[in-house]
Amino acid sequence: MAGISVVFPGVKALDLAALTVRPGEVHGLVGENGAGKSTMIKVLAGVYAPDEGAVSLDGERLITLSPNLIHAAGVRFIHQELHLVPHFTVAESVFMGQETSGRFGLDNKKMNEQAEVFLRETLNAHISPRTLIRDLGTAEKKLVQITRALIDGQAKLVVFDEPTAPLAIGEVDRLFAAIEGLKANGIAMIYVSHYLGEITQICDRVTVLRNGKTVKVFDLGCGYGTTALFLALNGYRVEGITLEFYFKTIKKRMAYWSAFGDVSGFTYEYRNILDGMPKNAYDVVIAQDTLHHLEPVGQALSKIHQALKSNGILIAVEENGSNVVQNVKLIKQRGFKKVKTIYDEVLEKEILIGDENIRSLSAWDALLSKNNLSLNYDSLNYIRFFYPIAYKDKPIEEVFRMEQRIQHKSSVLKKWFFFGLNFVAHKNVLSN
Predict the structure, then answer these.
(1) Angle 282-285-289 (CA atoms, 0-180°, nearest 5)?
(2) Cβ–Cβ contacts within 10 Å for residue 332, how many?
(3) Superfamily of domain 2-210
(4) pLDDT band at 124, cuts 50/70/90?
(5) What value does the mean pLDDT of the chain take?
(6) Fewer CB atoms inside 10 Å of the end CB: C or N, the chain?
């Protein structure tokens, strides 16, 4: 599925969303309520016709989308609801609407045998085909539902839509074992769930939808690419820029990580952010230990604002060079000089490099606001006040009380005495 857009009156449910699933892969589809997951699945099912985009299977574009044609193409759906008749047997439920006939009518013996073999060999489930549905547990009913969808042997792609919703905690493992059996048979699967623990456990890759769009991430100062590679493994599209030193190493790291999954969603280059970024291109910009190296930082934040889509977010991890210990160290090393000019031979220009972050939370807030970014105070996380030894053998509640006592003693300590902070800033909705 590529470039899928669906517009309802007054609402754009999907906006150029994309999803690619490979044979023998469990591909997670996640997002908040209203992100577009259900719409994406209904396009694939032929219920909704996309206003833009294409659906392809085995490299061939499906020109016409309808439930019957989608089914004929080998796409099957396992819905949250079971839709099984309680007084039917397992075999009757599996073959309902696709019965096998013999010389004298329905061939019940053959249907019983086929249902039993499929359950045992494909799903590793030992369920008698003559058992009534009403006598099965919920997990066993789910396995029957899967068998019914796949018994004809034509399935190429199976969509699981919140499959564990009706299951008890102990029954989920049986479903996951069945999914592993389908993987072994080369069947591609889409797994839709809002349970992130399940996504992590069963999925090989993940596509994340946000406001009907496939989430696109920019890793600013991606270093060796560790974060970007992890995100790529989980289905995000990530672009990164890094320094020359790291740039030469990322290729080797990508080769290593590729042994564990598809990292092709990560692309990177060596360039200066202040030379420009694409406008309205990214849902998320990540800056880990990076912003304080960008001078002037206000100009960098302006570029980030331009690069974010409407309602996009900046995720920042920042050290703080103004804590007392670090500040004394810096003064001894280089006085009050905080910025240096270097000549970059690759870029063939002089650039300014900030050595340390010397900004309090209020200073960051002011800088963000000036560049039409709003600090989310609920996201704020201080990197702790004390050295690690101070936390040894102490309950977390006591640690918090220690830090609160420090903050209450002095506004100076509260504003300046910390080793770093993490925060999220939102692009202002009304900004140009």
Answers:
(1) 160
(2) 8
(3) P-loop containing nucleotide triphosphate hydrolases (3.40.50.300)
(4) confident
(5) 82
(6) C
